Amino acid sequence: METAESRTSLLIGEMGLQRLKQSCVLVLGVGGVGSYCAEALARSGIGKLILVDGDIVAPSNLNRQVMAQFDTIGQPKTAVMKARIHTYRSDIQITFMTKKQMRRSSVSQSILSLMPSIRCLLNVIASHIVWRIRFRSSPAWAWPIAWIRPRSRSWI
């Protein structure tokens, strides 16, 4: 019988699927990049997501952010993203916070230092704060999971 995870199971196996269901990823920034990251992680079978973003859905988000729709304008991006994901994954655990709540939270440093995170932040100051917290806890985790750099133009 086909299930929602059938294709993922073919790709990574049952043990891989179970490992995904037991995993948690922190997504910092649920905008143009972060909304698609959260969507892909949820659809892949991740067990828990923590979404952090202090912004609300704006009309300028409609053409580039997966959760933005006319009826979600003015709502917090993290709450809208959680509702969207729960329309197709009822078993996923999603926690969401605004950046302000994250700053005030006494667990923010432990959250940032213990789990893999995907940084999708445009705000340079917020990115620097996250980097400093991560570097203090473990220099090995201080660098982004995926480092994107411009192509070399040595051929010109």
Topology of this protein?
Elements: H1 6-21, E1 24-28, H2 34-44, E2 48-52, H3 77-86, E3 93-97, H4 99-104, H5 108-114, E4 117-119, H6 124-137
Parallel strand pairs: 1-2, 1-4, 2-3
Helix pairs in contact: 5-6
What's the quick description here?
This protein is an alpha/beta fold and 156 residues long.
Structural notes for this entry:
The longest helix is centred in the N-terminal third of the chain and has 16 residues, at 6-21. This protein has 6 helices and 4 strands; from the N terminus they run αβαβαβααβα. Helix 2 links the parallel strand 1 (24-28) and strand 2 (48-52). A 4-stranded parallel beta sheet has the order 3-2-1-4. The N and C termini lie far apart (55 Å). Residues 138-156 have low confidence and may be disordered. 41% of the residues lie in helices and 12% in strands. The protein is of the alpha/beta class.
Order of helices and strands: HEHEHEHHEH
Count of individual helical segments? 6
Structural class: alpha/beta
Within the largest sheet, what's the order of strands? 3-2-1-4
Largest sheet: 4 strands, parallel
- End-to-end Cα distance, whole Å, is 55 Å
Spans where pLDDT lies below 50 across 5 or more residues: 138-156
Shape: globular
Radius of gyration: 17 Å
Multimeric state: single chain
> What percent of residues adopt helix (DSSP H or I)?
40-55%
Number of strands: 4
Report strand %: 5-15%
Mean pLDDT over the residues: 76
List keywords for this structure.
globular, 156 residues, 6 helices, alpha/beta, 4-stranded parallel beta sheet, 41% helix
